[in-house]
Design brief:
Mean pLDDT: 88
Number of strands: 0
Radius of gyration: 38 Å
Order of helices and strands: H
Shape: rod-shaped
Low-confidence stretches: none
Strand content: under 5%
Number of helices: 1
Length: about 90
Amino acid sequence: MSTASKITLCLSFTFAVGSFLSINYMQQAEKAAIRQGPIKDAARMASKENKKHLANDREHKMQLELREKYEKLQPLNNEIIVGLDNEKKD
C-alpha cells in the first residue's frame, strides 16, 4: 500500500470513529435534557405558585392596613341605625 492510501485509510477511520462518538455524545446529551424537562417544569410551576402566594400575602396585609385605617376614621360596631319615620301610615 502506498503512503497516500495509508493516510487516506487512517483519516477515513478517524473520521468514522469521531462521527460515531460525537453522535453517541449528542444522543446522551439529548436524553439528559429530556429527563431534566419535567424537573425544570416542576420548579417553574413551584416558583410561579410561590409568586402568587407572595402577591396574595401582600394584598392581604394591605387590606388589613386599610381596614385598620378606616376603622380609626369611622369605627365599626354592630349597631344598626334605623331612621325615624315621622309620617303616620294609615
